[in-house]
Design a protein that fits this description.
The complex is a heterodimer. Chain A is globular and about 50 Å long. Chain A is built from 12 helices and 16 strands. By secondary structure, chain A is an alpha/beta fold. By secondary structure, chain B is of the alpha/beta class. Chain B is 17% helix and 34% strand. Chain B has 5 helices and 15 strands. Chain B has a 7-stranded mixed β-sheet with strand order 10-9-8-7-11-12-15, sandwiched between helices. In chain B, strand 4 and strand 5 form a beta hairpin. The longest helix of chain B has 12 residues. Chain B is globular and about 50 Å long. The chains are: A alpha/beta, B alpha/beta.
Chain lengths: 311, 258
């Protein structure tokens, strides 16, 4: 049996598959369906300083091979998450990655500090890429200077390794990656959703109450693969790859593009057992394509360095 | 809640664009579980290939028989329901079930219940009415449809008790809206139950404000298990939202803002 074990800063993963932030709540609902210990890690829904009610409905729309969502970071606030959700997750023997969102650098720092101080998380994921709240996050994901600043400030405050979740809604994702790497990030997670819109024909208006939403699902996978591949050429940071993963083959594709672990998002929405099925099949898929273990697959992703710079 | 394959046992068109489908559970063990399914709960059904269509479709339980077979009734209103409607007898359907919180039938000891349904909101009220009637409750039903060819289950509801059919154009039964015909029974019921389009639920709850009642709310849904926060409805008692797929779809009439 092929070992799926892999290590990233702060994270010793039994396997490289974790649910993506926002697609798994705080794990409670899924823990009623399967044993969370089977997962590589859990990434919890974004925490903000105050509780957030989120956007009006409709919040989701179906698209070809994907979906749009505009939940709007609904969460009970970092204090409730530290008191109620993290202790619940601590009963499982898996790393917990806490996703942090905010409107200001001070908010990111304050939320990260509170999560860090619980001692119940193994890594932070800075959400500088949520497209669905007006004043939150995304401006940090579009401006390399702001992204670097928020990363540096959080790094200065916490001991926990910091992963920065990059937005595809930017002119140059490589520049963003380099900026946060220089600022001290321990890793990257990518990509968040792409901003999209759907018009409702009967009402002749945008279907989502928020008008725009984040596009996710298999439809965005080629974009995610391309971005992971490009960033891999220019950054030494480990990457948690995501964007439309729904099969074990997709996982290998991300590893070969340059990711060291992956997150499964939208697939959980239509199949709550998606992560489990992918983990179960991954050893066969690695074997089928000639890999003896995870390191070889990850190494495969690092092998084609400078391919792009030559072209 | 479980994920399972259901077998299509029957597929009948019972009104315009409206399909009644009977679904069988795969094992006796599941049949035992099915005895606990509550009126108002729903199946979250996946049709088609892995990502086409992408999302599941929430469809309420319209009836259950003693063998644990589940009846659903749905309107063909888009690609997903169209694909579901084309499933022939013997084919398998992937479903999460039972989802959500149903009507608190066990806690209610009612003399008379008033059911108010509109269009595709009518199906869960049948299983509810049947359950209430079997517990000795008198059931009065007011069911609204757009026009005659969309009416279904008229006789089945009449077997449960007094039933008023209302159509927008008067092509069958009374003409107008369900809210026009509630006043006749206003003094008779201890509790009302309503399911239908949101504007209808709003009108019903406004007209019956202060009365004990339950409503079943619909919204575009994601995961169906309470994890994605897509289907929410503003709560009346506290600031924030309730999750329709988990806390609902059935809510006390004064619990949420429509």
């Amino acid at each position: 049996m092929i070992s799926l074990e892999t290590k990233l800063p702060g994270l010793h993963l039994k396997n490289p598959v974790m649910p993506a932030s926002g697609c798994f709540g705080f794990g409670r609902e899924f823990s009623e369906l399967f044993d969370l210990n089977q997962l590589g890690a859990v990434v919890i829904k974004a925490a903000t300083y105050e509780s957030r009610y989120g956007n009006q409905t409709p919040r989701v729309a179906e698209t070809a091979a994907g979906m749009l969502n505009a939940i709007g970071l609904q969460n009970p606030g970092v204090e409730a998450i530290c008191k109620e959700e993290l202790p619940y997750l601590s009963r499982f023997d898996i790393p917990v990655i806490a996703n942090v969102a905010g409107s200001t650098i001070e908010e990111y720092v304050a939320v990260a500090k509170m999560l860090d101080e619980t001692g119940l998380i193994q890594a932070l994921e800075l959400n500088i890429s949520c497209p669905n709240v007006k004043e939150g996050g995304i401006q940090f994901g579009m401006d390399p200077g702001l992204a670097a600043e928020v990363t540096a400030q959080v790094k200065k405050t916490v001991d926990t390794p910091v992963y920065v979740k990059l937005s595809p809604n930017t002119a140059d994702i490589v520049q963003m990656a380099k900026a946060v790497e220089t600022a001290g990030a321990d890793g990257l997670s990518m990509i968040n959703t792409l901003t999209g819109m759907q018009i409702d024909l009967p009402s002749r208006k945008p279907l989502l109450a928020n008008q725009t939403g984040g596009l996710s699902g298999p439809a965005i996978k080629p974009i995610a693969i391309r971005m992971v591949y490009e960033v891999r050429q220019h950054s030494g940071l480990p990457i948690i790859g995501m964007g439309g993963i729904s099969t074990a083959e997709d996982v290998l594709e991300f590893l070969l593009a340059g990711a060291s672990a992956v997150a499964v998002g939208t697939a959980n929405i239509h199949d709550p057992f998606a992560c489990m099925k992918i983990i179960e099949r991954l050893p066969q898929v690695l074997q089928k394509y000639g890999f003896q273990n995870m390191e070889e697959a990850i190494e495969g992703g690092n092998r084609h360095e400078a391919d792009l710079s030559r072209s | 809640m479980i994920q399972t394959e259901l077998t299509v046992l029957a597929n009948n068109k019972i009104a315009e664009q409206t399909i009644e489908m009977q679904l069988g559970l795969a094992s006796d063990k599941l049949v035992t579980e099915a005895e606990k399914f509550m009126p108002g709960q729903f199946l979250h059904v996946k049709v088609g290939e892995a990502d086409t269509p992408m999302l599941r479709r929430p469809i309420s339980i319209a009836d259950m028989d003693s063998d644990g077979n589940i009846t659903i009734i749905f309107k063909i209103s888009g690609r997903g329901t169209d694909m579901l409607g084309k499933q022939s007898v013997g084919s398998q359907i992937d479903a999460l079930l039972p989802c959500g919180t149903g009507y608190p039938v066990e806690e209610l000891n009612l003399d008379t219940a008033l059911l108010i349904g509109g269009g595709i909101g009518v199906p869960p009220l049948y299983y509810l009415g049947k359950t209430l009637a079997s517990r000795g409750t008198r059931v009065i039903s007011i069911l609204g449809f757009q026009k005659e060819d969309q009416v279904f289950y008229k006789e089945k509801f009449m077997n449960l008790g007094e039933t008023i059919i209302v159509t927008d154009d008067g092509s069958l039964g009374e003409k107008g809206f369900v809210t026009d015909y509630m006043s006749k029974h206003i003094a008779e019921f201890d509790c009302f139950f309503s399911c239908g389009p949101t504007p209808m639920l709003r009108a019903v709850t406004e007209k019956l404000s202060g009365r004990r009642g339950y409503i079943s709310v619909e919204q575009r849904m994601g995961c169906g298990i309470g994890a994605c926060y897509a289907c929410v409805v503003p709560s009346k008692s506290e600031t924030g939202f309730k999750k329709i797929c988990k806390d609902g779809p059935v809510f006390a009439a004064n619990e949420v803002n429509l």
